[in-house]
Amino acid sequence: MSRILMSFLLVFTMLSSGLAWSNVDGARDAVIGVVDAFRKDIVAEKTVLASNPALLEQRVNAILEDVVDFDDFSKKVMGKYYRRATAEQRVRFATVTKDTLLKTYGASLLELDANRINVLPLGPQGQGRETKVDVDFQMEAGGMLNISFYMEQSKANKWMLSNVVINNINFGLTFRKQFAVMMEQNRNDIDAAISAWRDSLAKKS
């Protein structure tokens, strides 16, 4: 191989690496945007939102709807059962998952200390399409939450949340296992499993 060709390959490799790193920086920027919105629109107004669950749910939804594809998230949670489900069951599962999660976990955001939320610099990344962005959340009552946001670019080149790991608990994997248990307990009746799934999520509040 000629030196000229080798030089071109070297330059191309360096450019590709630079572009890839610039690309993953966009994932961190997307997370920073979400965190800033949480801080400004939710945590800073916790006094008002604590007595208005409907408004809190509305605020959380407004923040997440631009970075979370609940249809795709629900598909991953359903796992192998997704193909068995009808179109109506898929829609119902996605709706139940979104509504219940917003109601159940939205209130926990009010426990955060608005002045102690830190988006960490990007660390080493894996070989897949996801980019991990770590954020440290200090709770007002004490204790720290480390949340890893796994971001993935959509076909429209928009960074979307693919998975969340909280204090080393992989929520995507945990939810998928839980729904599989619901299916087994309900003898593979998808409608019954979805109802059980809704009740299970609601109990976590």
TrEMBL record:
Pfam families in UniProt: MlaC
Position of the signal peptide: 1-22
Residue ranges that the Swiss-Prot or TrEMBL entry lists as coiled coil: none
Keywords from the UniProt entry: Signal
Gene3D superfamilies linked: Tgt2/MlaC (3.10.450.710)
Name of this chain's protein: ABC transporter substrate-binding protein
Organism encoding this protein: Marinomonas arctica
Organism lineage: Bacteria, Pseudomonadati, Pseudomonadota, Gammaproteobacteria, Oceanospirillales
